[in-house]
Amino acid sequence: MGLVSRVREDIAAAKLRDPAARGSLELALLYSGLHAVWAHRLNHRLWRRGFRFLARLNSQLVRWVTGIEIHPGAVIGRRFFIDHGMGVVIGETAEVGDDVLIYHGVTLGGRQREGGKRHPTLGDGVAVGAGAKILGPVVIGDRCVVGANAVVTTDAPADSVLVGVPAKPRPRRTAEDTRAVLAAPEYSI
To answer: How far apart are CA 20 and CA 35, in angstroms?
Structure first.
């Protein structure tokens, strides 16, 4: 997929997930979440090709400009959207699937100092509410919803809703809309 096609796909994903989005030009010029993801794609390529210092330098500049820190080693899927974005941190060994939505203040962080896989893996179609923390090498299954301010430290099967501190998964109801789940008061703390 070419650069222009990927940018168009990201803008379309942002339009789909953000009811406040007015148009493609506004999204492309003003949405820091998109800017951070686009910069990450460049930095990740540099990282994989061995230009690690340059990739880290660029990621820190992007962090300074957008308030979003994505380590260049993190693997990010297609149509990933960060809404609002300020305070988002994504660690080096994190893996994010396709069609994932993350709100501001989310941390995909580590809990250990040893090498290897230290950060979470999010499946396809996952939505993570504002302020949530997903810590350690846990796996969050496809189509899960993590409530605002939840602290997740254990794996969750696909189609779960995770809320609380520590977060406890419960099966997601078939007809539950992701936006409705994230907006419900009982899914935040």
So the answer is: 17
